[in-house]
Amino acid sequence: MKMKKNKFILLIAMMFTLAVLAACSSENEASNSESGQAGSDGNLKIGVVLKQLNTEYWKIVMAGAKDAAKELGAEVKFLGPQAETQYEQQIKMIEDQIATGANALVVAPSQPDSVIPALNNAHQSGIPVVLVDTDANFKDKVSYIGTGNVEAGQLAGKHIAEVLKDGDKVAILRGQMGSQTFDDRVNGFQEALADKDIEFIVQDAQHDREKSVNIMENILTANPDIKAVYATSDEMALGAAKALANEGKQNIPLIGFDGTPNGLAALQDGVMVANIAQDPYNMGFQAIEAAVKAVKGEKVEKRIDSGAKVITEENVAEAIEEINGNLGK
User: What is the domain-level CATH number for residue 176?
Assistant: First the structure.
């Protein structure tokens, strides 16, 4: 009987010890969650949800983010739909990152208004959100890091202004309607040419190279007297360039936007007269920096301008060399 009693006491003691250990473990996990610290392996988990992953521009953004993560000891997971128009998929990716417990989110919203409920969910879950490339009316964002797109569009307009006169027609290929990024790039371009009586022919090419070929050919058929073409991304500029070549109108000046390797190569080959180069590498790098600072409770500027500049034949070789260095080529 005494032996049974001792076994019972020993069992009670073991149960009490396990309960204490479980409580301690639970308390530590709660502390990590509240403070936004890293997981058990010591690395911050940052979900980077972009508009898409398979274009040169976003690959450069990812290169900058990877380098920053390596330098700061964070882990990044890149997600993005197949096309920038698939914003519903992007929203689901954000929600999945919230559910899996990311320490921070970096988001380039395809449709800024549509994504706000998901961003609010992240904030309510204690996950800091950094916006990159495209801003949104989300008051709880840590920071918006990106190009001043109105000002960058103005750079394009000012560059082409000298070859235009009153009454000229200018074709504009823009990204999807409802995107503030593309709205700003178009508006800035048009503002820079406001003192001229320019007829703007604006078409939504959905940031798609193949669609841009067809749309540009249709514009040329209906308006054979086009005097210049402005595309609000290099993907669309390269599509427009193919259409101009197909129609034998390579003499029409073409301006691209983004400063991607393919875009700059086309500029170097004389296919474009200029390219408005963003700094996507810097965007990606600074976005991870901001996310890490936010998790650690450090101050982050609410708006960080990643910069833009006009690239022409005079400085294109230098720009290509810089990008190759960022991509490790």
Answer: 3.40.50.2300
DSSP code string of 198-228: -EEEEEE-TT-HHHHHHHHHHHHHH-TTEEE
Instruction: Identify the pLDDT of residue 89.
Output: 96
The reported pLDDT for the residue numbered 329 is 77
174 lies in the same domain as 270: yes
Retrieve residue 242's tokens: 């193919």
User: Is 117 within 8 Å of 266 (Cβ atoms)?
Assistant: no
Are residues 223 and 139 located together in one domain of the fold? no
- Per-residue pLDDT of 301-311, as tens digits, reads 999 999 899 99
Whether 280 and 65 have beta carbons less than 8 Å apart is answered as no
CB 27 within 8 A of CB 19: no
Q: Say if residues 157 and 122 touch (Cβ distance below 8 Å).
A: no
Domain that holds residue 105: 44-146+280-298
Confidence at 180, pLDDT banded by 50, 70, 90: confident
Close Cβ partners of 78 (under 8 Å, ≥ 6 residues apart): 48, 50, 53, 62, 65
**Pair 269, 163 in one domain:** yes
Task: Say if 186 falls within a structural domain.
Answer: yes
Asked whether residue 245 carries a pLDDT value surpassing 50, the answer given is: yes
